[in-house]
């Protein structure tokens, strides 16, 4: 399975809008380092048989898919409904036109209900072959229970994201946990044995809705994955600083990064 990092930034991206010259607020991030330029967090999974699974449809989706040469897939997992994870939903219309059908959308019933309330037209019967609007087909999931997506087994688990919850993703030996500050015990059990874990690390200091560096290190000590890749990073998280200071087995993601992990098990 190939994991493509479409974006690894926080809700404002890096740089954030503004700045003295109007060209962005970089915070501690060196603007001359291209890996500090981060779009909103999303990943794409491509199995060896060609099955594709997108995670979230943020506002930078069109540019992200073009940059990675991704033009066809059948499945989306939604982690939660914050705008930086759903506001690019209309961009999937181009994918509908490529595959000629609605895309499967997997999320909790609560998340799907909110998406259907905010984007009702996306969940109406699709209009092939022209697709005048984006088209999704809802598939509710239950945290902690295996679900078959594209013929492969996934486990989606609960995450505390401050005042709301989000969904983490376990896919064989790989896991993805964006937008999380605390993990329930049952979710930590879902992560037991994970080898490669992409995890939220918005900043170095404590935050009410996002993990920070010391929190990630606590999880590392407990779960002991071989590889942790930080994502959803804000302007405190300078690439050069992280290269010099992150411990062995911990690294920063960057927009355009990709890596290989074993395919998850086939579903029943």
UniProtKB/TrEMBL annotation:
Query: What EC identifiers does the entry list?
Result: 3.-.-.-
> Where does the sequence pass through the membrane?
none
- Using the UniProt record, name the top-level EC class of this enzyme in a single word: hydrolase
Protein name as annotated: MBL fold metallo-hydrolase
Record InterPro entries: Metallo-B-lactamas, RibonucZ/Hydroxyglut_hydro
Q: Which GO terms describe its molecular function?
A: hydrolase activity
| Origin species | Acetobacter ghanensis
Q: Which Pfam families match?
A: Lactamase_B_2
Alphabetically sorted, this entry's keywords are: Hydrolase
